[in-house]
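Summary for the steering committee. One of the milestones for this cycle was to obtain a three-dimensional model of the protein with NAI bound, which we needed before selecting residues for the alanine scan. The sequence and ligand used are listed below.
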Amino acid sequence: MAYNLLKGKKGIIFGALDENSIAWKTAQHCYAEGAQIVLTNAPIALRMGTINKLAEEIQAPVIPADVTVAADIENLFTQAMEHFGGQVDFVLHSIGMSINVRKSIPYYENNYEFTHKGFDISALSLHRVLQTAMKLDAISEWGSVVALTYIAAQRVFPDYNDMADNKAVLESIARNFGYFYGSKKKVRINTVSQSPTRTTAGSGVKGFDGFINYAEKMSPLGNADADQCADYVVTLFSDLTRMVTMQNLFHDGGFSFTGVTQAVIEQMEK
Ligand code: NAI
């Protein structure tokens, strides 16, 4: 059901690769709530993915941008503002990639070239996006930026590998940039820490099936899915959450604050 929560708002959505992507669902939900969208992804992802299907469905232009290239981000904001005829009201950063994870290189043997690349794409990119937006004054007052993260930023999940470090920095950038962007322009910045979700990036983590089943059993409400994540992000883009900024917000069915559940105890007793 739609509530018109984003009526008249305009936003940029990074990271819709295919219909499982959290960004894909978020774009659909934002559109259903009345927003106008610009979609973006890395040029290679645009060639491999199916983003044009989504673009048609939600009447959104697609502007290629590799999030590690400053000129691409500048071009993206400039073109998006031309398209909208003014500033954007929200931005979703839904981007993650680790070559160490992809190549199953354990954390304690990480290849630092791969680490640098993953860090640039998964964490520093948020800073680059925000710095560019601030320079171009591309986000409206009370605008909202959300980046997606995972609880491995706070606790050890061994196979999450160097993505854990990337997420810790991502959350820190949201907090620190949130201070400056909030003070200067009343733009708010938050991270949403989502349950494990079956997507291309998610399924790349070793032992993902065990991981997602464990989280399901360890969450009083069960795992949150991508559609539910999209709903939550809509609220953060809406005017109903105007005073929320610099937060890491868990969207995980209660997983983050649960010590143990009856379902896990029963499993251990078997
Ligand atoms: P996904 O694979 O659908 O999305 C990842 C996106 O990052 C893709 O669209 C990819 O093209 C984009 N990307 C990679 N390199 C890029 C570059 N250089 N420039 C621009 N874009 C680039 O997977 P998912 O799961 O939807 O991931 C979205 C976000 O959600 C990520 O930050 C991920 O870490 C986070 N997340 C995912 C969870 C999961 O279990 N799937 C759990 C918690 C957070």
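Key point for the committee: The first strand starts at residue 10 and ends at 14.
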